[in-house]
Amino acid sequence: MSKVDQIDHLLEEVVTLPSLPDTVIRVTELVNSPDCSLAEVGKAISADPGLALKTLRLVNSAYYGVRQEVTSIEHAVVLLGEKVIKNLVFTAMVFDKFKVGAGHFLRHCVASGIAMRSLAQAVPLENQPEPDELFIYGLLHDVGRIVFHEFLADEYAQALGVAHEKRLPLYQAEREVLQTDHAEMGGRLAKNWKLPEPMPEAIAHHHDAAACDTLATVELAAMLSIADHMCALSGFPSEPGVCTDVTPEAWQAFGVDSAQIPAILDRFLDNLPAVDELLRLAE
Amino acid sequence: MQSGDHAKVVLVGPRSNPRGAVLVTAPADSSDKAATIPLLDHLDQLSPDQVLEILITQERAFGSGLLAPMEEP
Question: Which of A90, A99, A122, B43 has its CA 20 to 30 A from that of B22?
């Protein structure tokens, strides 16, 4: 069975993909629409009191650096603009949905978001999303693990065992056991959620950047791979004790040389306090 | 290293110290001493992957505490 068939089989026979909350779908549709009004975006978020509250807590966090206290969603939308608000809503949603494992998974997702933001700030690339948008790429890059964790727990545990025993990166062990990996599953889920391209493709290939269709997406997938690895090395692994890697092709695609690494690490360390702050808001 | 030579990395202090991380290269022959060179002056001799791993390990061992210390194996 080919990889694509294997994923299709999993999706049709085994897994019911988790759906996005209605509010998140509505906000994404509004923000992507050319005639979107800020008032409508505000109303859509306010319709979900839990999400609205979490969004307000995020707006008022030091991470977003808004000087005045924001007490209404409508005010937040006007102040930050609809794109930032969309990112906030996604972050709030992830905090609700990603509470799998012993907390280290959510920590890895948030740290990866911060790592993506840091990479973009240290090495600005042309024709790529803004650093705050890239935060969402990092936040969601391992979303496929949720599917494995919830629907294929035995096989996932087996893959973890193989990764430990053979000292393999988890995506390679997943391919051995499941004939697919969390990246491909995550890309499928992102597509199912109708997240705009190139996010689904970058997520799908974050361990295989060269397989992306366009150069811009190859760069994004390579960045995700580097952010993922940087977080694992820094003590924010998605699975403790499992090794990670970045292919030489991914380093080449991102286009950094060794002399730029200290600046990247400095930027990551500068941004790192935001991880704990964001996680506190998730509680 | 990129040159094909082999070296060991020795971490002795924080990244703010230029000699906090050094490369120790094997002597060319038995009469020579091993050379010790600061890592930061020779980053081009290593791949980005190697530099990232070394600097993060150094930060976890000698940094300001933003990263958790390495666990004993």
Answer: A122
